[in-house]
Amino acid sequence: MKLKNYLLAGTALVALSFMAACTEEDPIANGDGTETPGNNDDGNNDENADGGNGETTDSIIVWPADTIVNLTNHYTVPEGKSLVIKEGVKIIVSTAGVGANHVPVEFTVNGNLYCEGTAEKPILFSVPEDERTKENIFAGLWGGIVASSTCEEMLIDHTIIEYTGGQVVEGSPAAASEVYTAGDDAYPQITTNNINGHYVITNSVLRNGWSDGIYLMGGNAIIANNVFAANGYDGAEAVNVKAGCVVDVAGNVMFSPNTNGLKLSSSGQSDTRALAKIQAYNNTIINAGWRRDGEKGGGVYVEKNALANVFNNLMVNCKFRAMTPSFDIPNDPEEGYNDKSVIDYNYYASGTQKSDVVFADESGVAYSWEGYAYAHEDYNEGVVDAHSVITKTQEACATNDPKFVNYPINEVGLTDYVYQDAWDFHVQAGSPVLTGAYNGNDATMQPYFGTSGLTVNGKTYTSPKVEARFGAYGTK
Q: Any keyword Signal (predicted)?
């Protein structure tokens, strides 16, 4: 993650207010509709640790359905406690920052977090409505959700998280806890850091952030059926995995990540932080890599000994194909490629439009099909993507068109990053992505949590099964 090049400005407030009608099930609303959580140090601390507001038991805090939460300070779910956010809750984060340094507001989870949105009433983590603009997509207006090493469980279901990516500075809680480094890092939308944690992120939207969508530094995770859009201004990915993780990533749409949809790495592997293991299948990745200079970016990047099976994914108008640096160094926990990985049976589709940004002094790649055909040193022909469908000529673009229900593959600019809700990435009957994919029978290619699942808040979630087609969606 790269340093954000400006500081947020504004005036820091110190109140967390709840604006909702008072009901019997609403334990946090006062008669005037507001509540200020208890602060440490008689309110002089920069951090709003929930001091009992909204608790229904000694260990559970509930934010009731349809509540509006104005978050004007750092908020912490304390270790040993759980925050349950019900459907329809809107968490509106102040962009003024905290204190004299205007530290971006951070939502820290030292305990457990359960976001229980629904399709009809998703939960929203955002900024004030008048600041939700195209100009602010990469402005990094707040700090995102940071699940620390003591967070045992987190559920993000039917939840929208947007306009994150503030700079980690002196005074940032994540800097004090040494999750991130002040002056070097910017906040992803979601961070995890407990190698034993259980995390389920599903049916959600993670968009408009300076940094990564999800940055996993530890934990067992299911990342399924989400939409990622406009993740990363200068570097960063939709999903970024490090050592200490076992993850299934499936059924997601990833639109215009700055670098890759999937960066899968075992960086940080040690005696206490195990090899990263990832099953990444049936995802659709669009427009990856075009906003990134250099010869990185374009869909999938697997490095530093990660054990990654990447298959049945559909890459559309991406800059490059799957890359595996240090392929010639087998099974080196510091740098090499894990030769038990399978990166194959993927589908690379290309439109015919030219990028409006061409780095002529680097690869010079201007078209997606041209990038797929580029003689990249990290492609490793004949092993990686040996059986994949790869569009390498302009003439093949029409033949390999996925035939989406509603996405103009030849019209959307390669550097565009504003996601349109009207798009539909299901495919029409007869689409070529419906045949030729991996059938999913091999035991080593099964989802890690497809059978036993992950238990979060007493409920067991399972990963999607492998579908014998390319991409997140089949026909309607």
A: yes
- Is the Cβ–Cβ distance between 142 and 188 less than 8 Å? no
Q: Does the pLDDT at position 231 exceed 60?
A: yes
Which residues are CB-contacts of 245 (< 8 A; sequence separation ≥ 6)?
192, 195, 216, 217, 218, 219, 220, 221, 276, 277, 278
Q: Which is more confident, 440 or 353?
A: 353
Kindly provide the b/e burial profile for residues 314-331, where b requires at least 16 CB atoms within 10 angstroms of the residue's own CB: bbbbbbbbbbbbebeeee
Contact between 119 and 187 (Cβ < 8 Å): no
Dihedral sign for Cα 46, 52, 54, 55, please. Answer: positive
Which residues on adjacent β-strands are paired with residue 342? 309
Q: Considering the chain, what percentage of its residues have pLDDT values greater than 90?
A: 84
The secondary structure element, H or E, covering residue 153 is strand 153-157
Residue 165, number of CB atoms within 10 A of its CB: 28
Q: Which residues have CB under 8 Å from 90's CB, separation 6+? A: 67, 68, 69, 123, 124, 126
108: Cα separation from own chain's centroid: 17
What pLDDT does 110 receive? 98
Least confident of 24-28, 211-215, 354-358, 392-396: 24-28
Per the CB < 8 A criterion, the answer to whether 371 and 431 are in contact is no
Phi and psi for 125 in degrees, rounded to 5?
-105, 110
Q: With the CA atoms of 33, 34, 38 and 43 taken in that order, what torsion angle do they form, in degrees rounded to the nearest 10?
A: -160
**Enclosing domain of residue 365:** 212-461
CA distance 241 to 231: 15
Q: Strands 342-343 and 314-316, how do they pair?
A: unpaired
* Residues above pLDDT 70, as percent of the chain: 88
Return the H-helix or E-strand segment holding 372. helix 368-373
Alpha carbon 390 to chain centroid, angstroms:
26
For 473, left (φ over 0), alpha (ψ -120 to 50), or beta?
beta
Exposed e or buried b per residue across 125-149, where buried means at least 16 C-beta atoms within 10 angstroms of its C-beta: bbbeeeeeeeebbbbbbbbbbbbbb
pLDDT the model gives residue 57: 64
Contacts of 412 (CB under 8 A, 6+ apart): 287, 317, 351, 353
Residue 128 covered by a domain: no
The string of pLDDT tens digits covering residues 306-325 is 999 999 999 999 999 999 99
Q: Examine residue 200 and state whether it is found in any structural domain, yes or no.
A: no
Provide mean pLDDT across the span 435-456: 96
Q: How many domains does the chain have?
A: 1
Does residue 19 lie in a domain region?
no
Please compute Rg for the chain using Cα positions: 22
Measure the CA–CA gap between 95 and 128, rounded to whole angstroms. Answer: 8
pLDDT at position 334: 86
Residue 104 in domain: no
